[in-house]
Amino acid sequence: MIFINDIPSLRDPESSTHTFDDRVEKIELINGNTVQDYGHIESGDTDTFTCVFSAENFERIKALWATRTRIVFTDENGTVHNNLRLVFRNYRPVNKFPNYIILTFELWRV
Question: Model pTM greater than 0.85?
């Protein structure tokens, strides 16, 4: 189970992905390539989750997203992450259980 502020999910996330903000770029030259490397910018990393919430809790989370409120996220290990941006990607009802919503969202540190 995870928490967005005090709002619990139904269970642990269906999936989660961590994406690094790695500022490296290959530049093609006439006779080869070179690399422009600004390093890893940790504050630009994002975490993406797909998780099930009750319809009521989904509406509470949707209100946080709509007002662009910074959130506190508690992961399934109990680690608390403060001052994150919540970005919705998509949602859909759970088949045969219309009172539950599958939400895919991102958390940004910036």
Answer: yes
